[in-house]
Every structure is written in C-alpha cells, then in structure tokens.
Amino acid sequence: MAKIDITEKVVSLAKRRGFVFQSSEIYGGLNGCWDYGPLGVELLKNVKEAWWKEMTFRENIEGIDASILMHPKVWEASGHVENFTDPMVDCKECKARFREDTLEEAECGNKAYKGRKAGKCRKEGKFTEARNFNLMFKTYLGALEDKDAIVYLRPETAQGIYVNFLNVKESSRQKLPFGIAQIGKAFRNEINTKNFLFRTREFEQMEMQFFINPNEDEKWFEYWKENRINWFVKYGINRDKLNIHVHEKLAHYAKAAVDIEFAFPFGWGEIEGIHNRTDFDLKRHSEFSGKKIEYFDDQTKERYIPFVIETSAGASRSFMAFLLNAYEEEQIARENLDGSKAANEARTVLRLHPALAPIKAAIFPLVNRDGMPEIAHKLTEDLRKDFKVFFDDSGAVGRRYRRQDECGTPFCITVDSDTLNDNTVTIRDRDSMVQERIHIEKTIQFLKEKI
C-alpha cells in the first residue's frame, strides 16, 4: 500500500466514524479548518489530559489559561509584528498563491498541469516577486475599526505565560527551577494549508515554559528533550517513527532547538519543539512594559532574568500522529461467537493506547431477547460512572466488533446466554482478539487495571 493512501484512508475513516469533519462542509468547507466530531473530541481531550497530567502533576510546574486576546505591545515585544512573516508569491497564470520557500515541493495550482511541481513554473518566470506576509490574524477591540483598536489573535500560547511569570511566581510561591504550562488555541493565517491536520489556520498548542538559572540551561534542555520523546513512546507511538531533528539555523530568540518529528506519510514532520529561549522573552517584555521581570535567589543572593526551556507540542498534530500510528489493516480469520476462527477477512483497526481511546469499552447483548438487553443496559450505566462506554445491539456481533475496532475501542463486553446462568460476561481484547470470561461485577476493576 502506498504511503499516501494511508492518509487518504485515515481521513475517510475519520469522517465515517466521527473523528474529524471538514469545517462548514455543507457550504463547501473552509480551507485549513476542521471540526472534531464525537470521537475526535474525546481523543483530543484524552491527548490533552495525558499531557496535562505529565506536566502539572508534579510540584514544580503550575498551570494557567491566558486570554487569546492580549495587549498589542505583547506582539511587538515578542518580535511577531516585525518577524512573524512568510515570503509569498503568486502565479501569474493560475493565480495560485504559495510560500516561496516551498515551491520546489508544492503542486502547481493549474488543474490542467496535474502532477506538475510549482518549482518548474518558477523557472519559467510565472511567479511574482516575493513579498513578506504576516501570519497573524488582526481584529479590532471596541466599537471603532481604526489602527488604534487593532489587536491580534495569538499565534502562540507562550507569550501568555511570559507576561504572567511574576504573577504565577508570587501567587504559587515557586522557586527556580519551575515551569508554567498551558493548553490553548492559536491562530496563524497560513499561506498554504495542507496535509489534513498538520498545517491549519486554527489549532491547539500544549506548551510548557521551564524557568531556570542560566548556568543550568544545558542540563535542563537535555532533560526535557528526553522527557518529551519518552511521553510519545509511553502513549503508544513506535520509537522508529520518531526522530530528533537538531536545528542548525536558529530563531532570533534561541540558543539551541530541536524538533521531535513523526514519520507522517508525506515525510518527517514536527510534532513538538524543545527550545532554549535564553532570557530573550522576559527581557523584551521587561523592556517594553517598563516592569522589572527578574528572580532573586535566596541562597546565592543573586538577582537575574531566568533562562527558559520551552516544550511546545501541537495538540492537533499529536492527535494526527496518534491516529496515523494506530491505523492498521490486516487479514484475519473471522471470529465466531464461541471465539473460534473461520475464513479470512479484512480488518481495519485503530490500536490506540487505552488511555487515549475515545471509547473505553463497548457493551453488547448477544441477542435482543431473554433479558440480555436489560442486563447489558444496566452494565453500561454502571460502567458509565467511570468510563466513556458505548451500548450497541445492532447487527451481528462480528460486525459490532469491526465497528469498534475502527473506533479504537480497546474492549468489547458481550452479555450472552451464559450470563443468565452464572453472571459472567465475555471481554474481547481489540488487539489480540482474545476473549475471556469474567464475573460481571469485576468488569469495572478489570477496565481500571487495563486503562
């Protein structure tokens, strides 16, 4: 199977099973914008919760939720007003718009030249001169739409952390080293959006800024680089599909930077960045605001502006990576009701980590009679107090298994005729398809141990 087919199949499955929909689809869609459906919003929530626990369930990292709209001087201080630009060019023939630095890989916008690379059009002189395009969305605060009322939708969540450094330090009584974590929306008016959820105009970030003594920057940079790649492995991503890309050309604020990359079907793509931002951000905000932003060390009696080690993960990109990593097609022997196997058939399965899976268990009555639906409904309600579960009594059990395999549900619980006699149920494992019988009262404990 060609690699690109995997993305197409995952996009199809994402719509069919309710993970992701094209935004405003009934109006033809809005380019670069996506809606998370019933299963998608659960998977995204679980990814964010796993990250939040990893970061903040420790004594030296605090959480905040800063406003999307911030004082415009924030973005002057950060350098976004001046530097947050991409070089943009237009094709004189088909009017398509491109980032100049991606022309060699980009597809020509003219449908008559299907498969043609835009770089070839460039050699033929079909493009305008490059001009800088600022990626921040502008809007207006208040009743008047003039230059004094301009504010921006934030292009990153990090600045909300920097401007709150003193507030968090003083209110939480934290001492260095300590971090501040945030999950939130960010907005970038990308010239070209592409590759499903990889490059969009509205997305979510999971960022943690770790404030340290400047003398310890290399130690903490290595620590967080290792910690963050291990997190992706912990939640099921194959280590062979992850890569550490070391930046040689650094941003104006960085002393060191690496990307954690995932092997997407289109190639390696960044899912998280770890940066040594030095004291650039706090120093700039101190300069532009006129307020001293510094730290006094009680032990050494030093006063200094902390360095910052940033971990910046894309929630949307991580969602896509977990989805692609979990997707698998295989030929299996058809499952009979007694657990035996029959003729081969195709199976599509999402091998999501149980903690990330949108639905933790599906409950089936084998048939819709003899009191089985009533027992299955009661079990569903009991489990629902602790887990996101799903009741399904439609179609053959084999078909119900397949539907849940595509949803990534790790366990299916079947109420059958034996349940009526001994109060046991069948639990079927998604990955191995192995079935075992346990007492119905032990199902909650079983799921807690597995999830």
CATH superfamily of the largest domain: Bira Bifunctional Protein, Domain 2
- How many strands, what sense, and barrel or not for the largest sheet? 7 strands, mixed
Total number of distinct structural domains: 2
Strand segment tally = 23
Q: What's the architecture of the largest domain in CATH terms?
A: 2-Layer Sandwich
**Mean residue pLDDT:** 89
Summing up helix and strand content along with how strands pair, one would put the structural category as alpha+beta
CATH domain topology of the largest domain: BirA Bifunctional Protein, domain 2
Radius of gyration: 26 Å
Estimate the global geometry from the Cα principal axes.
Answer: globular
CATH C-level name of the largest domain: Alpha Beta
Spatial order of the strands forming the largest sheet: 3-9-10-16-13-12-11
Low-pLDDT sequence parts? none
Secondary structure: helix percent: 25-40%
The portion of residues forming beta strands comes to 25-35%
First-to-last CA distance:
32 Å
The number of helices is: 14
